[in-house]
Design a protein that fits this description.
This protein is an alpha+beta fold. It is 32% helix and 26% strand. Helix 5 crosses helix 6.
């Protein structure tokens, strides 16, 4: 199986993607921007020496985790630049608990027979085409640009939805032998060949008054969740949730659910405890302001770490780093730390253990003391912030592949610098920048971010001189965020998150005795 897995990786990496722009199907007068790929590109005879059964189902499982949906042999991901409404939603079936109203729907439909259909010949019968045509015309009547489907067009639609993918099944819902509803469902597989979930592709039903009274759409979701549970499929993928679209926001009625926000599945329990998170998330993702002014009253309250994600040091995940969010984060002990090189989203973290230097406990080695007596360097503050952060990004570090300081981080912190919160300390020799570091100042707390060294002892000497001047100006605490051997040499020690937040809240209210740019003049 290991050989098969390697080839699957190659297939996935070599897939071709394209883009298109279409009319939005949810909001009038909007356009949708889609990333596309096709399963018929996955001809295993060309892309892999192995013949892997249901390769498209394996690839689609991974695509689902990136927000893709399927239509025929096409997988598409709606990624609109100025809208982030389309949010994938799934149900972890083991924890699902039906509400009272959902239990009533189950009771009301206990006389409905559900039949699993896996023969493609049974997916597009005349009976199904008729039900689908009537359903489609009924539900889209009055929509701008709507034209009624003919029976032939309905049959062609069903052929497309059920074709182009090898993991399709139908669940046929029958009442007294009469077909009243059909679910088009997609199996998804992991690379070991196990089914990991069932994806709801489409559901259509008889529009007669008797069927409409049954809430058959709700019943179908409950049946399919139970189908996953009985067959030990962990997840039921319910498609897209659109918070501000009435036709698509019903999906959060199935609890607990998870939403895919920037590549990370978030738990509904946390979202419901922080009801402002999703609304603010949408606002943040749509924020494109170029202003460097910060309104302290326009404050984003971060969720407690681990509340909406399984990782207990992760508070939020976003796609970008708006200034308002950066300011709010540092004021709450949160900071962005992610690997942009590897395509990670922005991970806003708050470690359980914080590595800090109480400024009165600063330790300076004898070798640095000796070096400072014959110091060949000159030092400045905020004279070359952009150059400092770019050099920090280039600095090679042990056990680190690439850099966590990518273009997105550089752009955000340069903006934070212009706003007056991010600062750089530069080391010069013969007019050339040879070392330095940068960080964030909040009152009498300095949050160190990164440093770089070109000439020996350049950044070490700069840090010592800065720390001493910082103490003289009334500085209380240097936050090193997480443990490093380098900072341990200066007397840094671990404290709990709770202790750090208490110190931050106290000291960020205490300003320095001078502006930071004048520290070395004191």
């Amino acid at each position: 199986m290991a050989e098969a897995e390697i080839n699957i990786e190659k297939v996935f990496k070599n897939m071709m993607f394209g883009k298109n722009v279409t009319e939005c199907g949810y909001f009038p007068d909007r356009q949708a921007e889609n990333i596309l790929t096709y399963f018929d590109w996955l001809d295993s005879s060309k892309t892999s020496p192995l013949s892997i059964e249901k390769l498209d189902c394996i690839v689609y499982e991974r695509l689902l985790h990136q927000g893709f949906r399927r239509y025929s042999s096409m997988a598409y991901n709606t990624r609109c630049q100025n809208c982030h409404e389309c949010i994938p939603i799934r149900i972890p079936v083991k924890t699902f608990a039906p509400s009272k109203s959902q239990r009533r729907v189950l009771h009301k439909n206990q006389d409905v027979e559900v039949i699993i259909t896996s023969d493609p010949a049974d997916f597009c019968t005349d009976e199904k085409a008729l039900i689908y045509r009537n359903y489609y015309n009924h539900h889209n009547e009055g929509t701008p640009g709507f034209t009624r489907l003919t029976l032939q067009e309905a049959a062609e639609d069903l052929k497309n939805m059920n074709g182009g993918y090898s993991g399709v099944i139908n669940l046929d819902y029958k009442l007294k032998g009469q077909l009243i509803g059909v679910s088009i469902l997609d199996y998804v597989f992991d690379q070991h060949g196990f089914i990991t979930g069932l994806s709801s592709n489409y559901f259509y039903y008889d529009i007669s008054e008797e069927v409409l009274k049954r809430s058959i759409g709700v019943y179908s979701v409950l049946v399919e969740i139970n189908f996953c549970l009985q067959n030990h499929f962990p997840y039921y993928y319910l498609g897209l949730y659109l918070p501000h679209c009435r036709k698509m926001n019903y999906k959060t009625n199935y609890k607990p659910y998870q939403l895919l926000l920037n590549g990370v599945w978030t738990n509904s329990m946390g979202l419901e405890q922080c009801p402002q998170v999703l609304e603010n998330y949408l606002r943040i993702e749509n924020e494109k302001s170029r202003s460097t002014k910060i309104d302290p009253d326009d404050f984003f309250e971060f969720p407690a770490p681990g509340l909406i994600y399984s990782y207990d040091e992760l508070s939020l995940v976003t796609d970008n780093i708006p200034l308002r969010l950066l300011y709010s984060a540092y004021n709450q002990g949160v900071f962005p730390w992610f690997n942009e090189d590897q395509g990670e989203p922005v991970l806003w973290q708050s470690p359980k253990k914080r590595f800090v230097i109480p400024i009165r406990q600063l330790h300076v080695s004898k070798s640095i003391e000796k070096f400072l007596k014959h110091n060949p360097y000159t030092y400045t503050i905020d004279k070359a912030f952009g150059d400092v952060i770019k050099n920090c990004a280039k600095q090679k570090r042990a056990d680190q592949i690439g850099t966590w300081i990518g273009p997105k981080m550089i752009k955000a912190y340069k903006k934070f610098h212009k706003a007056g919160y991010a600062h750089s300390i530069e080391v010069w020799k013969d007019g050339k920048l040879v070392g330095g570091f940068y960080g964030i100042l909040l009152g009498s707390v300095f949050c160190g971010e990164s440093m770089f060294t070109i000439e020996p002892n350049s950044s070490k000497s700069a840090f010592v001189l800065f720390a001493r001047a910082f103490q003289k100006a009334g500085g209380k605490l240097i936050d090193c965020q997480t443990y490093t051997e380098n900072m341990a040499r200066y007397g840094a020690r671990e404290i709990t998150r709770k202790q750090y937040l208490a110190k931050l809240e106290k000291y960020k209210q205490v300003p320095l005795k001078c502006e930071i740019k004048n520290l070395f003049d004191m």
